[in-house]
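INPUT
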Amino acid sequence: MTETHDTWRLIGASVRGANHVRQGIRNQDFIGWEPADACMNESGTVTPFVISLADGHGSEKYFRSHIGAQFAVEIANEVLYQFAQTHVHLPFSRIEVDAERLPHQILAQWKQDVERNWENDRQTDDEIAWLEEHVSARKAIAKNPTIPYGTTLISTLITERFILYCQVGDGNVITVAGDGTYAEPVPPDERNFANEAVSLCNAVPKDFQLHIQQLGTKQPALIMLATDGYVNSFRDIHGFYKVATDIWDLIINSGEDGLQMVANSLEGWLERSTQMGSGDDISVGILWHMSAFQGQIARAEAPSSSTEIVSPSPLPGVALTNIDDESTQPAPTSRANS
Amino acid sequence: MVSSLPGGELASRPLHFFWIADCSGSMSGVKIQALNVAIREAIPEMRRVAGNNPNAQVYMRAIKFSTGANWHIAQPTRLEQFQWIDLTAGGVTAMGKAFQMVAEQLKVPPMDPRGLPPVLVLISDGAPTDNANQGLQAIMAEPWGQKSVRLAIGIGEDANYNMLERFIGNPEIQPCHAGNSDQLAQYIRWASTVAIQASSSPHAPGMNDQQGLTVVATQLNIPAPPPVSNGQSQDIW
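OUTPUT
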């Protein structure tokens, strides 16, 4: 028999922005999680897992930002997952202290990988032509070759004892508590305004926003991460917050059926949101803590592993013509396997 | 309860466009007439350009300055419904007052933080008679002022092009110089459409500063104005 109180479920999706579809631009967001498949923890405790989203800047100057976004997700997932494995049994005070090094680790690895990509991956004719036309950008990139890879990053690491939120640039993380109230564990960075965002390509470790929540009696029942294309699709911020609470209500009221509906519908919801809203790429990750649904979810269907990953599938009847193979994000990624 | 989509009302992102028009006495006659015609004739092209990005909703308004400044079209009006109302000229050149009033409208609220960079297009044929620098500082004190797309068109030789350059605030973009009504019409059409394109382009970050920010340049990817012809115009300003 499997206990559900330490079990989480996770889904994620990324869709190409409606504007990008019209302009023939690829999806510059990336989403991934670690481990890439559900895994059993023999001790029966929560298996640590991490999910990350990244939003590559996407304009001409950031012509490799889709690569930068992918690297950011893969590196953050790897670094944070290792952190969880090495720290899960350490005192919380030690966890807090050591977590302060995470931004440096992620940033240093991202810069190293990006610079290696810049050196090894020959520039395309289009890239060369663009650089020849744009002198100031060419000079800036010569000094800092990470610029073409500019991206934001949002990560959430779940362990049995703590949740760690990590963010650089815009995007949102929302938590919903068991009583349906919501919160933003990472306070908004006031520097992210208009189309301006803190970027990994220029960031220093102190630009990372890090928040660690020790898990006790009070813990989130649902966590939603989203790139800024989602919040910008709503008339106001409260409409965006309502996404998380609506999903919470759906699952509470419909149990396993509600969960499956969310899993099946998420991609279609995001497509319609970008079409009717911001036009930007949208990536969303949603995590449910199954203990919040005890009595609501069919116990017999409870997963046998500590972390269950439900890959979204298209909602029947939802037009998918705006998503092509190139732009659709792969499902979960594991840097170790990439 | 989820009906069709979770969350609140979806909406395209607002893009606020401000005409800032000189209606001083020196604009009387042919100039103000040409300005009215040029803006009116530019509107269909603006609609066409805006239609290329249905995820941006353009709202228009206009402020005029002469002896003091007044909102000529105060209500932000959807471009689809926008009708130009003719300006009349007379008085001095209180450009600074107009800047102050625009700055008030760039505050959040009434501006929406999720909007696209606002567009400010300044048209003038003379030198400010009040403290325009102070007004410009008020604009630049607002976050949306700093992020705004600013273009300027000088009419004739007497326009204060230094002031127009300061308004634009980007050495790579110079004020347009309209020498007759045909050129004014061409520049109005260029400025209005290119500004909408620049502001509503998806993810258009420009230069980088030294603080980790990827900055959407205030003047994003705005090409130089096209060469303009004298057309059929008989008036040389």
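end of record. The longest strand of chain A covers residues 8-15.
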